[in-house]
Amino acid sequence: MRQFGGFALLCAAAIFLAAACAARQPLVTVGPGKGQAVAITASDFKFVPNNIKAYKGDVLLLKIENTSGTGHNFTIKDPGGNTLQSVPLPSKETVTVKVELADSGTYEFYCDKPLHSTLGMKGWIQVDQ
Length: 129
Fold this sequence. Notes:
The protein has one helix at about 1-20, and strands spanning about 30, 35-45, 45-50, 50-55, 60-65, 70-75, 85-90, 95-100, 105-110, 120-129. By secondary structure, it is α/β, with parallel strands linked by helices.
């Protein structure tokens, strides 16, 4: 029974850590315009920046550098929850993802590998009129 208590404490600590990691970072504002480059770093369990503000009609060129030794993924959904793109992020490589922001609202992005988004590998693009 003692081992179970230690395991429960470890699980609670992991959940607390995951919640802390998933916090929104300071807002990065871009736009308005088309073809704007935004540099994003993907590392073990986070995207930096993960809180971006843009404008309806903007086209962003997200230059995502995976600095970790693990392959990741960049999946982005529109404000309606529809997947726009899902792009592999190979280890130690940079990938450019073109995102057209046709609607106002929040575009969520994340790594869809098991548990990666739960541990904090996610972000948001808030699109205003």
